[in-house]
Amino acid sequence: MEVDPPNTALSPTTVVRPSHIPILINNAIEDKEKITVADGQEYLKRQREDDWIENRVARIEAQNGKLDKLRSDVKVEEAKLENLEREYKSEVARIKKRREFFTGCRSKLGAPGSRSNPGGEEVLETGHCAVIFGTHIHELMHSLGIIHEHSRPDRDDKLNISQAEVVRRGLQVDMGIDQWSTTTLLTPFDHGSVMAYDINHYEPQIMSAWDKDSDYTFGNRRVSFHDMYKVNKFYECSCPTELPCQNGGYTNPGDCSKCNCPRGWFGALCNEAPCGGSCVLIAKPEWQTKTVNSSYVFTGDNLDGFTSYFHHIQAPYGMTIEIKIEKLDNFICRSSCNHNGIEIKYRMDHMTTNPLICCLNEQQPFAQKVISSVKNPTVIEVYSKDRTEPAAATFSYRYIDESIRFG
Ligand SMILES: [Zn+2]
Fold first, then answer.
1. Pfam families in the record, alphabetically (predicted)?
2. Which of 36, 47, 178, 200 is surrounded by the most beta carbons within 10 Å?
3. Residue 54 covered by a domain
């Protein structure tokens, strides 16, 4: 695993960790947006046990799509607002709606009253942005004190940023290295963090990845394994007993009976293959082909809007797995691969997001080549986000004996 360089410029006390951030939701926010807000809180609640979500936040036990229940819960919540405000005074984060249609989505950094947000109150300004789950999590994470991935102190090792363009457009603050950067020390840089911008966020483009294969991974709105790990570590959320989690998992502070697992690993201890073992593809020396149909289906668990189809490709011990993507049917090819994509966990560090693929053309040249994996088994994920129309990915796989090839 990569290790971040130490950040000597800041002391750990630079950012004050809040013990709670009560959240009030502005009445002007529409039901559709409230569902996203509620799902976001539910998602975070499952990952960590801190009372930021569970006890002091005005509760919304919304189920995705159940507006009537949401409405009745919101009514209860509204009745509590006055008491909450009195109890917590200025330490109240508000999710509020802007009148303008497009104002961008933004949030103060850190809890209201903390050093990074001394006089602040709002968490998230909604509008078009709150209906995208990952964007909402992005803003909530700011309120938890988490900075942009492209503002980390080690970001220049990973990103090529045109400083001339930054200065010309007056983006020194947005694209600078953040002074509240202590939270970045807890995880390696992750191109797939929900805290990163799309490389085309600014036009003309002002940033790209040094690792070209990861260019389209920036801006993806899945919440990454490291995103949640970072929140849990920063808040020191833990369990009385640590489970023997495998494959990089760690005991889930939101439910101490199981581990939080890197994508593609299942079971309480992160040692189980997908689909109870029936989605394991056994590689042979000859190429074999697999087509994975992919479209978004709400399962009750995928609050983030993504439906993922996982497989493991397994080879005999010591063999090297090779994968080639043959065809992408009805895939949208666009930076950030947010509509659909494939992630092959072929790199040694499978906890950090590996390059996402959604194009089989010159936009992602590496995706047209044979990908050699150092992991056995290799996790392969095909996902769709909010797209219910059928799509499919076809790939081939085999194993080779490197000792013969290079012997
Ligand atoms: Zn942001």
1. Astacin
2. 36
3. no
